[in-house]
Specification:
43% of the residues lie in helices and 16% in strands. It has 382 residues and is α/β, with parallel strands linked by helices.
Length: 382
């Protein structure tokens, strides 16, 4: 199949998932065309079946805010025509599903070339529904473009139910969970040897991975780590960047633990950093799925996360990780101390976390679900 994928190319869950999906589909023999305003950050290696098409937005004095959605729709239609795409798959409803809908209409009513129907799939990721889409300015068009999609997918049952409740969506929503490449995200002898860069042999190593937005509660990560390091020798890796990084750094300095924390910024090969850690802290206010937790679990890192959104669909409390109420830093710290203070428990939970990733969320199990969805659309089209 020839598939066009549009996502936000920045350091966030929807862009990461969309990029990894394109890579996995290309490895399965499909031709993938990314269409966005810049190349996705996880698209770091050349691939003969992966192509990138930049959307250029013209700057005119008339427009205070250049109409990216219109430029994107035009580029989608152009790429679909030039490369004979079978379908579009857009990640994050706003504005991508609207642009895909316009591109489909343009091709359906093309009086110069032969009209054609270009199906599009919309994948809902979270804040496009729970935050942006509920804005009164966007709610009607978001609902309409979702309903007009040829197929709609959600990354968790929790997000599906939230979308139906808040948007009164009647279109069927297929739940296809996020995934991880279990061959890439794994604990190896090489990764274990790299641990010395971040912690001494007698120290435990905790990690946090996010885009440092307020919803991630990164200052809670510092609070939890402070409670942990007071009881046992430990260090913390903070992977990522964003608006709340400064607040986290300032809090670490105030508590006198800044020298025990590695602020690593954005990382291209996060699996290499995750695989050296013992525990991941993910105290988010909301997570529609929790991709960071899954990536950690595949690397045999035990997640300690908030009991919110789709995280309970990924983590089974006290089996392959721990769940606590958002904001309950004391309980999360207690769970970290419990597992980090017991080598046997840590070893068992490491194995279970890896097993969960392999048996339920490995790309070899999830990618065929997308392929089957695409084939169903194309069969209906023909």
């Amino acid at each position: 199949m020839r598939i066009g994928i549009t996502c936000y190319p920045t350091y966030g869950g929807s862009g990461v998932v969309a990029t990894e999906l394109g890579i996995e589909l290309a490895n399965c023999g499909h031709d993938i065309h990314f269409i966005s305003y810049s190349q996705p950050i996880r698209l770091t290696e050349p691939h003969p079946r992966i192509h990138f098409h930049e959307v250029e937005v013209s700057q005119y004095p008339l427009f205070e805010y250049p109409p990216y959605d219109l430029a994107l729709a035009t580029r989608m239609a152009e790429v679909a025509e030039l490369y004979d795409l079978d379908l579009l798959h857009v990640h994050y409803a706003i504005p991508h599903s609207v642009s895909a809908m316009l591109a489909r209409q343009m091709l359906c009513h093309d009086h110069v070339r032969k009209p054609r129907h270009l199906p599009y799939v919309t994948t809902l990721h979270g804040t496009d529904i729970t935050l942006v889409g509920l804005d009164r300015s966007y709610l009607p068009i978001t609902r309409f473009s979702i309903e007009q999609s040829d197929a709609v997918t959600s990354i968790s049952n929790d997000l599906k139910n939230s979308t139906i409740e808040k948007f009164s969506i009647t279109k069927p929503i297929h739940v296809i969970h996020n995934f991880v490449n279990c061959d890439l995200y794994r604990r190896t002898e090489q990764s274990i040897s790299g641990r010395i860069e971040f912690a001494k042999p007698d120290e435990r190593l905790l990690v946090h991975l996010s885009n440092f937005r307020p919803v991630k509660r990164v200052t809670d990560v510092i609070e939890i780590f402070d409670l942990v390091q007071k009881k046992i020798p430990a260090r913390l890796m903070m992977i990522g960047d964003g608006p709340d990084r400064r607040a986290a750094e300032r809090l670490a300095c105030e508590k006198g633990i800044h020298d025990r924390i590695h602020f690593l910024g954005k990382q291209d090969r996060v699996q290499e950093k995750l695989a050296v850690a013992d525990v991941m802290l993910l105290p988010s206010e909301m997570e529609s799925f929790g991709l960071a937790a899954l990536e950690a679990m595949a690397c045999e890192v035990v997640p300690i996360a908030s009991r919110v959104g789709g995280l309970p669909e990924v983590i089974e409390d006290r089996v392959d990780g721990f769940l606590a109420s958002a904001g309950d830093t004391e309980t999360m710290a207690a769970r970290a101390l419990e597992v980090l203070g017991d080598d046997g428990l840590l070893s068992r939970m490491r194995r279970r976390a890896r097993a969960t990733a392999q048996t339920r969320f490995c790309s070899t199990k999830i990618i065929p679900q997308y392929e089957n969805l695409y084939r169903g659309l194309l069969e209906r089209k023909s």
